[in-house]
Amino acid sequence: MFNRTTELKSKHPCPVCTRRKVKCDRMIPCGNCRKRGQDSECIKLSKVITTSSSKEYLPDLLLFWQNYEYWITNIGLYKTKSNDLNRIPSTLGRDIEECRFWMNYLERDQSFQLMNFAMENLGALYFGSIGDISELYLRVEQYWSRRQDEKYSVDSRYWDALIWSVFTMCIYYMPVEKLSEIFSVYPLQEQLGSDKELSWGDSLQSIMFKNFARCTLLQLKECDFMAHADIRFIQSYLILATTTFSYEEPLLANSLLTQCIHIFKSFHVDDFRPLLNDDPVESIAKVTLGRIFYRLCGCDYLQSGPRKPIELHTEVSSLLQHAAYLQDLPNVDVYREENSTEVLHWKIMSLDRDLDQYLNKASKPPLKTLDAIKRELDILQYKVDSLEEDSRSSHSKFEKFIAVFQTSTVSWKLFKMYLIYYDTSDSLPKVIHYSKVIIGLIVKNFQMEIDFFNRHPMVLQTVTRAVSFMCFYQIFIESKAIQELLIDLTELTANLPPIFGSKLDKLVYLIERFNKLKQLWDNIRLSDSGDSFHHPVFKILQNDVKIIELKNNEMFSLIKGLGSLVPLNRLREESLLGEEDEESTESREFRDIVEDFQSEYSITNILS
């Protein structure tokens, strides 16, 4: 399919006819040159015009990328899951039985080893969510006492769910080698129904993580959380959100997040402002609630999408609204220490939000807005660099890594915006620079043997954005620097933690698909229709957006009871792939190329 060509036509008269001042039919080679035997000269001189034409419509392509990035690499890959009502559901009894197996599989000594790993290495992920960290060991001890007496209350179930969320997080982040030292593989052989002898590896760890998450959710259900709301529900969710749980189950994660917001609102937990008459206990509680609030806002923002209309993070205004005020007060130390790392992380994330709001909008960000984000980012970068890092503490290293990776990601997005909307002289070099910084941070973790840091969900999301944009750019503009960067990004993607599972596989597929689009762009030439976006590659990319957008707007599986009131075939995907538009000027050959590619490399393969 990639060898097809049609007659090439230029937008401009050929240089030979221009020099001779005669009318040119703009074919390559043109009719006049063919008659005069100047075919080779016409083709050679016309190539200059042809190869430079990509740059003419690159600005429009980059603007289109904003829409593409939103729907494909943000919504389609990470926030879209099919709602199949025709599937055969598992019975509640079987779910409980399977969860009981995993809960019995975990033994007392193993639970304390998991808690030790969490305390020593993962504090950056959950310390801010829990008031008294030392209390967790006591709660684990009480958990095993309850297991013996089989005496449970709603309060005890909430504690069980909370400590199981910590266990789940540990299973997700713990290196496989250490996991194999703690757990025996033999009890899993029969439970998983494997004919082959099992051994510890990435796939078994992934299975264990997913089942530990199921056990956490089961215990939350047993709390009857809809009737007995409690802050520990939010804490459990925030800890689960440090894994890829929300990527794997976006609809379920949105439902749980909505319940978290409901708890915050119904109990006025979001009112954590300190007062003069607060007693010491109340003051400590408000500090913890403030940290939980900013963590919850972060999760809420990261899960934003068309299938999550209820939002909490929008109640926190943009950091840019306060920037002008601080600059007018020379006595204010803009580098002052943050009250907590949670506030610092949220401020960085709020700048990310200020940039990403333009992904799916036709409006153009004012240059002064981008400049203001750059100023604030410089301030936050100073604070991040000032964070103390204990060389002996994995906790402090992880905390520093998260903050540096966040600022690097936002910097990458900022200069990508400069490139797309203003094409400033340093924008592309800066995009390449921060791509290399991101690669370097991940590689450093491998070299320092703390590569479990790379399992943080933001790593996969950032790499996805970077490699996808570079693949897209490389389709239309040849660049040695970007080509070398793409080699590094592709190699990095191949070495990302396998715990990312199907999402990593789908990212690899997306990269391969971009490479095939590059081949299509290089090998297919079409006549000029007067529209610069007249190429199968453009049509395929536009169809990608339409397909994912429709997938997120479909509602038929939820309202089947309306019967004939709903035209079930109205939004069929096939209408984008094969049916002819009466007003379309595209040739049959053009449509065949598009349909063949979409059939072989369907964009729906990236969906869950």
UniProtKB/TrEMBL annotation:
Top-level taxonomic group: Eukaryota
InterPro entries according to UniProt: Cep3_C (IPR031760), Sec_Metabolite_Reg (IPR050613), Zn2-C6_fun-type_DNA-bd_sf (IPR036864), Zn2Cys6_DnaBD (IPR001138)
Compartment(s) of residence: Nucleus
Annotated Gene Ontology cellular component terms: nucleus
Pfam entry (one): Cep3
UniProt domain Zn(2)-C6 fungal-type: residue ranges: 13-44
GO-annotated molecular function: DNA-binding transcription factor activity, RNA polymerase II-specific; zinc ion binding
Main location: nucleus
SMART domains found in the cross-reference section: GAL4
Gene3D superfamilies: Zn(2)-C6 fungal-type DNA-binding domain
UniProt entry keywords in alphabetical sequence: Nucleus
Name of the molecule in the record: Zn(2)-C6 fungal-type domain-containing protein
Source organism of this protein record: Saccharomyces kudriavzevii (strain ATCC MYA-4449 / AS 2.2408 / CBS 8840 / NBRC 1802 / NCYC 2889) (Yeast)
Gene: SKDI13G2980
